[in-house]
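**Folding the chain**
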Amino acid sequence: MSQPRGASSGGGGASGLPPVGSSMPGGGPPGDRGQVEGMLSPILAVSTRVMLPIIALTSLVVMLQGHNKPGGGFIGGLIFSAGIVLYAMAFGPTAARKLLRAEPTRVLLVGLLTALGSAFFSPAVGFMHAAWTVVDLPGLEPLKLGTPVLFDVGVYLVVIGASTLMGFVLLERT
């Protein structure tokens, strides 16, 4: 007997998602975690895949405009980690850790060292002064880079590491 177009015999197609309208593999109720760890809803899975690049780009824009407009490393890091935790809710913490490509504790440590490292530029330019340079981007506003931006990148990474770690721990315990 032939299968309907788009159906697969292995439970999941190229996307790894179970066929729409089927219960989760393993014979459990539809709410079971089944074959794809953490996936509770195909709608959540598809919308997360669409929204995650937009969330990541938004977090970078908010982080980079931090000293000139509202934003900065803290809120940019929260936006990015919210996207990663959303991904973990859709596909499971293991898949989200693979997507992040580094353990959250390492991201936190690199961020802390980056933020602390930005303080070592102070003796070179004078106490309580920032070193700045302007990068002209074609078609965009000039990007002002300096030691405060380096500090913001450190804060960004610390917040991503800490908040994704908290999200993963909470999701792994449920």
Residues 42-173 form one domain. Residues 1-35 have pLDDT under 50 and may be disordered. Strands lie at 132-135, 143-146.
